[in-house]
Amino acid sequence: MEKDLKSTPASELDKFIQDHLLPDTTFRDEVRADIDFICTFLKEKCFHGAALKVSKVVKGGSSGKGTTLQGKSDADLVVFLNNLTSFEDQLKRRGEVIEKIRKHLCQLQQEKQFKLKFEFQTPEQANSRSLSFKLSSPQLQHVVKFDVLPAYDVLGHVNINSKPNAQIYASLIRKCTDLNKEGAFSTCFTELQRNFLKRRPTKLKSLIRLVKHWYQLCKEKLGDSLPPQYALELLTVHAWERGNGLTEFNTAQGFRTVLELVTKYQQLRIYWTMYYDFQHLDVSKYLYRQLKKPRPVILDPADPTGNVAGGNQEGWRRLASEARLWLQCPCFMNRDGSPVSSWEVQVDEAWSCILL
Any transmembrane segments, and where (predicted)? Predict the structure, then answer.
């Protein structure tokens, strides 16, 4: 589909998204029905009578955020357990919990008639402490892969407008620093990651789909050693927030802006203060250190220990080279042959951190 996107006129990108990237409604509804059943099973029956107690099951990834791609997508099912009482406990008991869930889901697979084909995925590594399954429609050739992830319920009840107590982040930072596990507990903040995108305009989610599709095309060509897709999703949100911010906008301009920002990766320093900020002394000091790291820096808006853009300069360099090639394609050209304009997004703004 690379040729299809490259040759699509800028004025027809919305139609391209509608025709090729939005998920099939029937498949989407069947996935939702099967996943709702699995979530109910995990919460109410999987550990019935056992010492482990599930407090909630949350859909994360593209499925939870509303940015699923047509054909093939990945998603998370995060199982929060009351009996995991700390971040360290989550690390220690992950394997035990995964095996219990695997056993019960295997039994459910044999007993329940799912709307879609239910298959377990074989772990890529022997003795892997991971659990994945996929739901697929052979007729439509569509598939969604789910990773099942046990997590410590550090947030408890989450309101869509709520901001966690800063002490939670101070505790997270201490534990990640002590264990050298920065970003390892992002699953605990899945609901915040989901809420960060959930209320965004529909058209922004469509732009994210387009950027994700472009990223997948790059991955097919360049291999797996690229920056994580999540970094591109957050970069798209940043481009829209700083460059446009409107419910309706020109998709080609937004797409061009994101790819131009990719080419400027060495200047990127992006963070949000929706869920954490500089008011708490320990959190403030840590954020200051994070933001001083070599760029690109894109902090997970829900987890300040996760620099989703860090540690892969070569991957960014290769992705930037590919972006430069794409910017010459018809999908970025007006009808008269002139290049589509991009939004004005500053990449090297002055900033300050207030240390209390």
Answer: none
